[in-house]
Specification:
Blueprint lengths: L6 H15 L7 H9 L6 H16 L15 H33 L14 H36 L4 H21 L6 H21 L3 H17 L1
Length: about 230
């Protein structure tokens, strides 16, 4: 019988880590402004990220948390309990946390380091929607789904003691939150804290619902409203 090896999965994980997780740590506010928030052109890069995330999501579906959905759920009930409620709770919590962080930022006079130019035409609004939709989907797949779930899969195969597995699981979740948080360092330390809390909220949404769609919708709507209120 052929022995199962994690080598291909580890190789793919390493490539994604180097190509997707590390680059944002070297992003500057100037680069983000020039590429994203002051030049609303067709978001080719975001679309490429969205396509990559779609392929990765499809190929990695086996990493999804196992949920025993009751067959008696109608489509309407499924939509309500596994999409609409997760979206509503996640968005409400994200927005509340953001308001609190904005309040503290005002107290400590921590102005945003980003200069944002709002879209001022129908076509630029369309490009903005495409950008934010693809970016939110990409981040949900990479940070809330693939990165932590792949690490958890590696861990579950290795430890032989329950306490060690639990400890490693906690470390992985904290690491995932820190990685997402410091990927936003270009926009200041208050954004890092906000991103850390946002990751926890969206990660809970993912784990409880067993899918990325409620979190993706909350993430996208939150980003759009944040742009409007800036």
């Amino acid at each position: 019988m052929k022995k199962h090896t994690l080598l291909p999965e580890i190789l793919i994980f390493s490539i994604i880590f180097l190509g997707c997780i590390l680059p944002p740590f070297f992003t500057t506010a100037e680069n983000i402004e020039q590429e994203t928030f002051t030049n609303w052109t067709f978001p080719w890069q975001a679309l490429g990220h969205g396509l990559f995330a779609t392929i990765l999501y499809i190929l990695s579906l086996k990493l999804l948390p196992k949920k025993d959905f009751d067959d008696r759920f109608s489509r309407g009930q499924f939509f309500l309990f596994f999409l609409l409620i997760p979206f509503t709770l996640s968005f409400g919590t994200l927005f509340s946390v953001s308001l609190v962080m904005k309040f503290f930022a005002l107290i400590f006079k921590a102005d945003s380091v980003l200069t944002v130019q709002k879209p001022d035409s129908l076509i630029s609004i369309l490009f903005c929607v495409l950008l934010f939709a693809n970016s939110a989907f990409y981040e949900e797949v990479i940070y809330r789904f693939y990165f932590p779930e792949a690490l958890l899969r590696f861990v579950k195969i290795k430890p032989h003691k329950k306490w060690l597995e639990i400890t490693l699981n906690i470390l992985i979740e904290v690491t995932g939150a820190c990685v997402f948080a410091f990927a936003h360092l270009y926009s200041g330390y208050f954004s890092v804290i906000n991103a850390f809390l946002a990751h926890i909220i969206l990660r809970i949404c993912f784990k409880k619902s067993g899918n990325i769609w409620g979190g993706f919708a909350a993430h996208f709507v939150y980003n759009m409203i944040s742009l409007i209120l800036l």
